[in-house]
Amino acid sequence: MRRFTYYEPESLKEAIxxxxxxxxxxxxxxxxxxxxxxxxxxxxxxxxxxxxxxxxGLQEMDFSDGELCIGAMVxxxxxxxxxxxxxxxxxxxxxxxxxxxxxxxxxATIGGNICNAxxxxxxxxxxxxxxxxxVVEGPAGERQIPIDEFFKGPGKTDxxxxxxxxxxxxxxxxxxxxxxxxxxxxxxxxxxxxLGIAVIIVPDANMVCREARIALSLAGPKPFRAEQxxxxxxGKPLSEEVWKQAGEIAVGESNxxxxxxxxxxxxxxxxxxxxxxxxxxxxxxxxxxxxKG
Amino acid sequence: xxxxxxxxxxxxxxxxxxxxxPKLDAWDKVQGKTMYIHDVKLPRxxxxxxxxxxxxxxxxxxxxxxxxxxxxxxxxxxxxxxTPEIRCGFIKDNxxxxxxxxxxxxxxxxxxAADTPEIAEEAIKLIDxxxxxxxxxxxxEEAMQEGAPLIHEDKGSNVLKLPWKMxxxxxxxxxxxxxxxxxxxxxxxxxxxxxxxxxxxxxxFDAKGNLTVYSPTQIRYLAQxxxxxxxxxxxxxxxxxxxxxxxxxxGFGSKLDTYPFEFITILLAYYTGRPVKLVYSREEEFFAxxxxxxxxxxxxxxxxxxxxxTFRDVEMILDNGAYTSWGATTPSVMMMPISSLYQVPNIRYxxxxxxxxxxxxxxxxxxxxxxxxxxxxxxxDTLAEKAGIDPWEFRxxxxxxxxxxxxxxxxxxxxxxxxxxxxxxxxxxWDEKRGKGNGRGVGIASLIHVGGGAxxxxxxxxxxxLKLDDFGKVSxxxxxxxxxxxxxxxxxxIVAEELGLHVEDVDxxxxxxxxxxxxxxxxxxxxxxxxxxSALYAARKAKEEILEFAATMLKEPKExxxxxxxxxxxxxxxxxxxxxxxLLRAAHFRTNGRQIVVSEFYDPPTQMLDREMKGNFSxxxxxxxxxxxxxxxxxxxxxxxxxxVIAMDVGRAINPMAVEGQLEGGGAMGLGYSLMEELxxxxxxxxxxxxxxxxxxxxxxxxxxxxxxxxxxxxxxPFGAKGIGEPPLVGSAxxxxxxxxxxLGVRIRELxxxxxxxxxxxxxxxxS
Lengths: 293, 768
Hints:
CATH class of the largest domain in chain A: Alpha Beta
CATH class of the largest domain in chain B: Alpha Beta
Largest sheet of chain A: 5 strands, antiparallel
Mean pLDDT of chain A: 95
Oligomer: heterodimer
Strand content of chain A: 15-25%
Structural class of chain A: alpha+beta
Distance between the termini of chain B: 60 Å
C-alpha cells in the first residue's frame, strides 16, 4: 500500500484547490468503503487523499420547491432512515436497504456510490429513473449534469479536473407515482447486484399508464433507461401481460456481459423476469399512496 | 462403563456433563483479548513476505534480488538458490522455495525479512524474476491424457502414484441382483476455508540454535516433527524444536499440514538471527491457503424391487493441484460413506488424484466425505423414485444398525441413524410436505463419520497431565487443540465432573509441545472422544489418589467416599464431609506429602486400514441426518431455505450448547458449500479471492436451523460421547439437492446449486 497525504479541507473551495494543485495524484475521499479497499489492494495509489467529511452542507438533505436535494456526503443509512424518501421515492429506499451492511451504510455515501461509477452501484438505476441532476462545483464554478450524461462507463464519469459533486437534485414524481428497485443478488447482505431494476409507474385514474420509467444497471456497460420498453407501456392498461412484453422489449435493449459472477444469458432472462415484478410492486405502492391521499 | 451412564442416585447425577456451559474462551474472544498470531510481537522481530509466482506454469530463468537487498531495512532475501532444499507435504513433492520452475500461481519464488511489513512488501516488488512460460494444464482429465504438460517431470505422469481402490463383495453380482440401477456423474467445486484468522507464524532461534515456532496450527506435534526436518536441512541436527500454539482463528483443516510459508519463516529467522513473523493477508489466504479439492464422481447404485441396495460403484477423479498435501488422501475418508453409509453388500471404489497447474488442496471439514455423500445421497433419491419407494422409507430400509460390521470392516457400536431419520421426518412434516411440487419441497440426506478418532497414524493417541493445586483448582494440560470447536470447555467439563469440581475450577492449557504430551492433531472429529477419554482417565487416576488419601486420613472405607460440588462425602457416614481444597492441602503439607499430579495417554482401540483399505479405524461412528425445506422461485432460480433440521447422534452431548453450535456452524458452512461457495480459477488463477466474490453465508442469509441431539451413549466414548465436529456440514448439499428435486423435478448434480443452474435445468426440462 502506497503512503498518502491526507487532507480535511473545510470548504469546497479549499478542496477544489487541493484537487487542482495535485491533479491526477489526488483522490477525493467520501465514505471510503470502496476507495480504501482499492488503495489497500493497490488498485489505486493516490499520493493525496482529500476528505470531504469536514465540509459543511454536504451531509444535508432538503426537500423544498418540489425537489429533493441530497448532499453528496449523505450516508446510505441516512437515506434508509428518511421517511420522506421511503414514502415519496420508494425505489431509492429499496436501493439502500440491502446495500452492503449496516456498518457499510453508516459510512458509505450516495455521492461516493455515484462518483465511483461502478456498474454495480445500487443507487445508480434509481437515480437514472428519477431523472436526477448532479450539482457539481469546480474551478469554473457550478454546473448541473443530468445523471444519464454523468456515467461514461465503468469507473468513468463526466466530472472534470477539480470538480466535486456537491449534491443530487431529484425532481418530484408526478402525483400518484409508484416505484420500486429490485436488487437481484446472490446474498441478502454484503453483496453487489447481478442486476439492478428500477421502475416508476404513473397511472391515470383508469389504471392506464400515463408514464413509465425503466432504468437498468448491469444490463449494459452503464445504467440506462429502457426507452423502447417505456414507450411500449405508455398509454396501455397496466396489466401483467403488458409488463411481461415490456420486459422482453427491455431484454432487447440490453447488452449484459458474462463473468464468473453470472452469465449474460441469466442476466437477460432476469431482465425479462424482474421488470414485471418491479412493476407489480410499484403498482401496489401506487394504490397505497392513493388510499393514503 | 455403559452402566454408569444413567444416574441411579442423587450423587450420580451429573453436575457438569450435559450442562449448557458457554465456551470458556468466548469472553476473551468477544472482547478482543485473545492473543492470535496477528497480535504476538517479540523483541527485535522482523516481518517476512513471500514473492509469489506470476505464472501457473513457467521455467524460472533468473532471479535478481540485488535491488531488494539494497533497500534499507531489508535483513534477508532468500530464494531456492541461496538456501538448502526443504520439501514439504507428505510425499515431499513441494520445495518450500521454488527453483528451476513454478507449477502454480501460489508458488513461493523468493522471500524477504525486513524491519517493517511495508519495507518487506516494497522489497518483494524489487525482486526481478525472469520466467519462461510453459503450457499449463488445468483440467484433471486433460492432465491424464497422453502428451499433456507434465507438472512434475520426475514423476513421469500427472497421475499420482497413490491409487485408491477398495473392493467389497462383488459389484457385478450386485448389478445382476438389482432390479433398478441409476448411473450418474456428479461434480464438486473448489472451495476454501475462510478462517477469520489468516495463516501465519513466528519463528525464533535461541543462541544455541534451538527453534521456537509460534503458530495457530492444528497439529503442533506433527508440525514439530516437520520443523525438525528443516533444522536437519540447515545442519542443525540434534537441536530442539518447540511449537507454541497461539489462539487459532478458525481451522477446518487448513492448518492440518505444514506449508512452505512456515519453513520460509524458519529460514528467514535462521539467516537473520532474529524472530520473524509472516502472516498472510486476506488476499493471500484465498489463493495460498489450500482448500477442498474439486471432484468428479461417476456413481452407480442399484436396488431390488423391495428397495434393498445391492451395490454401489464409484469412480472419482480429484484435482490434486500442483503439489500434494492432505487433499490427496481424502479418498481414504470418502471410502467411509461409500462402503458404510447404509447397508450395501457389494462395493467398488477407485479414485485418482491428478496433478494440474491449479493451486493445491488439503483437508477441509469432512475430509472428502461431503463430496462422496453428495453423490451417494443425491442418487439415492433418484434410485428410490425409480423403485417407486418414498425416499425416507428407502433410507429406513437400508439404514445402518447398532452393532453391525460394515463391508469395510467398521465395527459399528452405537448407531442412532433410525432415531435421526425419525426426528427429521417429524420436524420436516415429511408426509404432509413431500411430493407437492410447485416450487416447494423437502429433502433429506444421511451421513456417517468417524466419531471415535481415526487411526491414520500408527498412534491416534492424546495425552493429558492433571495438576491439582492447593486451592482445589486443576491445571489440565492437554495435547488437544481448540480451534473454536469447544474442546477446551468440553475437556474442563469432563474433568470437573469426574473430580467433583466446577467447570471454572479447571484451567485448560493447550499450547506448548514442551508442556503437554503428544497428540495426532485436531482432525477426524476426534478431540471430544480421544482427548476426552484421555482427560477422563487422567481424572480417574487423580480421583483415585484423592480418595485413597482421604480414606487413610479419615479412616473411612474408600468405596464409601465420593467427590461432589467441591466436597468429599461418605455414602454411609453423614459426619464425613470436607472441602476438596482442604483435602488437597492436607495431602500436600505433611511429611512425605505431595501435590497430586497424574498423566494419561489414551490411544483408542482401533486398527489402521489394511492393504485392502479395510479395518475398524475408528472406535465409534457418528450418524446424522439433514433435512431441509426449500422454496424455489421458478423464474429466477433463487432458493429460499425455509427450514433446516440437523439431527445428529452424538453419543452423549457433554455440552448441548456447544453441540448446537457445531450443528449450526456446520449447517451454515454446508449451506455455503451447497448454494454459493466456489473458488473460480481461470487458468490456475483465483478470480474471486475476496469476501465479496467468494460468497459465504451471511447472517441475513441464514435460515433457522433446528438442532436435534440424539443420544445413544456409546460405550467407548467419554460419558458416552462421540465426535461431532465435521458431520454437521456433510449432508447439507444432498439434502438441498433432494429438496430442489422435490420442489421442481430437476436434479442438480453440480455444486454450488446456483440460480443459474436451476434456471438452465428448468429450461432443459421444458425442452425435453
